[in-house]
Amino acid sequence: MKKLFPIVAFIAVALISMTMAGFAYFATQEAARIKFEATADDALNRIESRIDLHLSLLRSTQALFDARNGDISGNEFKAFFKALDVDNNFAGLRGIGYLRLAKTGDEAAVERDMLHDHGVNHPIYPDTTQPWRAPIVLFEPLDPSNQGSIGYDMFSEPVRRAAIEKAMSDDHQHASGLVQLGQDTGAAQTFTGFLVFVRLNIETAPDVINASRSSTAGFLYAAFRARDLFQTALSRSPLLPVNTEIYDGDGAVNGDNLLFRSETPPASTFGDRLLVTRKIMVAGRPWTVLFRPTSAFSQPSSRAIPVMLGLFGLLLAGAIALVARYQERAYEAASRLHETTEKSLLEKDLMLQEMKHRIKNSITRVLAIARQTASRATDVNEFSASFSARLQAMAASQDMLTRSRWQKADLGDLLRIELGQVFGKELPEELLSGPQVLLDETTTQALGLTFHELATNALKYGEAGNSVGALKVDWSLEGRGRDRTLALNWRETGQKKLEAPPKTGFGTKLIDLNVTRELRGTIKRDFRANGLNVEIKIPLAN
Questions:
Q1: Which of 83, 214, 273, 432 is the most buried (most CB within 10 A)?
Q2: Is the pLDDT of residue 494 over 90?
Q3: 348-351-353 Cα angle (round to 5)
Q4: Over the stretch 154-168, which tens digit does the pLDDT of each residue have?
Q5: Domains in the chain, ordered, with CATH?
Q6: Torsion angles phi and psi, residue 113, rounded to 5
């Protein structure tokens, strides 16, 4: 029996070592799967964020039309679109247009309106047997390649018509299926993309249209070039080692419904073992997104580890106790790996939910600012300038929070950024003074808009418009613990006498709402013979 013991021990330990090697192999594969799923979710988040940004532009355009009750001329629409700097800020957006909805047989009235607005006769085409016509009457950018799109009836094409009919029934945005942009209008170059429609509720004569509501007069729509849109979203640094395929619909994936495919091919060594499939909704339409790793993807652990474990077990075939101990340690490591995996999945889900919540809050705030700015603007240029400046103030605060991973932002840095946008990047050293104060997300966003409005007013009405040295901002901390309060003094001095305005503007209301309601603080304004003193006090959380 003793003679057989080495053989028995060898076989027993060899079996254990092979089992451990197999376990390590599968653990390595599982770790690689978890890591790539996190990478794929990061890529998906970039895509969704980019699409939400573009759709917010369509909402802002809708707010402009609503504020003007649809009374927007071609020149005004062109000026508004040009002020948005779409080429630099909204890559992938082919343009934004307005469809006039009319009954079949009423084309002559629409053609007369287009002749009056464009100065060129644009007949509605093509001929159709549909009961409604939805020709393009406004579109920007209206370059020579897009001139032929004016008058094109989108209701005559089945894919576009399906999305328009959904938009007729409610006030939500509705995306179309895959379309070839420019193909039906005879453009020299076509692009694979999609359209998003939203109904315009404008008070019109009762005989214009009676869809689900009598006030529907037409539709705003945005046209997207799929390749440019998704390449811009995925090319943000750091580059992700993923091959992405996006298909229209939530059914079978094939070449007929392919919206986008990454230029970098997937790594053949992984096959479909790490394939990640996600379903998303874009303006009420389902998409299927497939992610595969590229050759740049690195696994969290080497494939040689299982082989090394097996060899190590064979070398220690006579040391049964050590092998048993190694097995115990491997089991503990597997338990920790499982716990880490569960925690990572939970944190990932919380992060995604939090990001979606923040995006929705940002969109709501942008819409509110757009409506208020539009309702008080005298023309499109004033609306574009005011709206763009307030968006830049929000973006500066968002950028600071992003760099700090949404944790804290420094008050001094926030002031330098906001004042630099108004007065220029070179600010005097003595302009700002105060201790380091770290602000949370809510306080950063509210104070960012507040400082932007104060600086804009100082530039317009105060001595700071001539010399930024006339402005001084200092702050201090009062109290301790839960009673800590930020006391900030904004002083404008000079020879110019400032008086309280007879009417409160939107900027002043925005400042007061941010300080008193959003931050639960106080604000006092003291108009003096030699300038203005604004005292702001805000309670700070621990």
A1: 432
A2: no
A3: 110
A4: 999 999 999 999 999
A5: 1-347 (3.30.450.350), 377-539 (3.30.565.10)
A6: -65, -40
